Amino acid sequence: MPIPERITLPPTAMGSTTVTHRRWWPRLVLWTGLGCGAAALSALATFRESHALLINASPSLPYWAIWLNRSATPARGDLILFEPPASALLQRHFGKGPMIFGKRVAGVAGDRVTRKAATFFVNGRAVAVAKPFSRSGEPLLPGPTGTLPPGCYFVATENKDSFDSRYAAIGSICGARVLGVGTPVL
Predict the structure, then answer these.
(1) Residue ranges per domain, the chain?
(2) CA atoms of 116 and 42, how far apart (whole Å)
(3) CATH for 51-184?
(4) Cα angle 167, 171, 172; round to 5
(5) Which of 7, 14, 56, 89 is the most exposed place for a label (fewest CB within 10 A)?
(6) Distance between CA atoms of residues 2 and 78, nearest Å
(7) Which tens digit of pLDDT belongs to each residue from 144-161?
């Protein structure tokens, strides 16, 4: 049975009363939808601040799309994304614009990095071999050795031409340079 729009109640001591009955459910649906929409936008904004999809243009990693999680802490074996330190060598090879590098974490805080000839070791395990010259013939200085301090990482890839911690122009990646952990997508 349909609900009438107006209901007239019998007269009371207060006099004759007419109550306008409004349907409450359309308003409830509207306010619920608006509340859910606001919550979704807020969650999306928070997600956007801590995540990004990046495109890899370097041959040093086999992936071309990487999902960045800024809130994750890198661990050994993770793909770490970082901003390399400014250096004339990197500017000559990659330009002056902002750069994001992606490499594998080979060493974490407390690990011991050593070098014998051109081979770098982390805790006695060989992780990378340094070249004396870049692909364009510029001399490459070997990266730092010693115990990695808190918040620092030794990064490398299997690519022989990769600019990573085996070279002084990159060195150990520490603190604010770390953007987060990457997950290969494609």
Answers:
(1) 6-49, 51-184
(2) 52
(3) 2.10.109.10
(4) 145
(5) 14
(6) 64
(7) 999 999 999 999 999 999
